Amino acid sequence: MSKTRPFEYLRLTSLGVIGALVKVDDTDVINFLLSTEIIPLCLRTMEIGTELSKTVATFIVQKILLDDVGLNYICATAERFFAVGAVLGNMVVAQAQMVDQPSQRLLKHIIRCYLRLSDNPRAREALRSCLPELLRNAQFTACLKNDETTRRWLAQLLINVGFPDAAAALGALDVVQPTPMTGA
Question: Which domain of life is it from (predicted)?
Answer without folding.
Answer: Eukaryota
